[in-house]
Structures are given as structure tokens and as C-alpha cells.
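Sequence and structure are kept together here, with a separate record for every protein. An example record follows, reproduced without changes.
>
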Amino acid sequence: MDTEQLYRTYPSLKERPDSPHGWIQWKGTDVCMDINCKCGTSTHIDVDRCYHVKCPNCGQVYECSGFIKLTPLDFQPEFTHEPELPSF
């Protein structure tokens, strides 16, 4: 796949949000996802390898972006993960 086709298929690869964010590296794992389309349709899927979704009502196709919003908290919930800082 050339670069132009890659960015057409996965447009979020060019995004760099200014706010705190994470990047999910999709590796074909199972996902349980609620989907809300711009047409107003809300639906749900449980699938393996979900890189794109299509609205069953209007047919709009969406990329499942790897970016996730990181929302600041004023406490630390159980099961909080703290990655190690790289050592150079």
C-alpha cells in the first residue's frame, strides 16, 4: 500500500491532537464498541479486527481512529497503568 492509499484508508495517521491523548495500536484484537453515526443512528458491535465500521442505516464508513482522548482525573483508580520512562 503506498502512502497516499494508506492515508486515504487511515486518515487519523496524519492527526496530532493538541490535547492530551493516547494512540491505540490496533493489532486485530477483539473489540466491544458502541457506535454513534452522524445520521443519528446508534448501534453496537462485538467483533475481531475492527479497523473500519459502516453505519447500517446511512452507509457512512468510518475509520476506527487510534487516537483516544485522555481525560484528567483528580484521583487514581484501581488498575491504573503507569508505563516506564525510557532510559537512554
Q: What stands out?
A: Residues 21-67 form one domain.
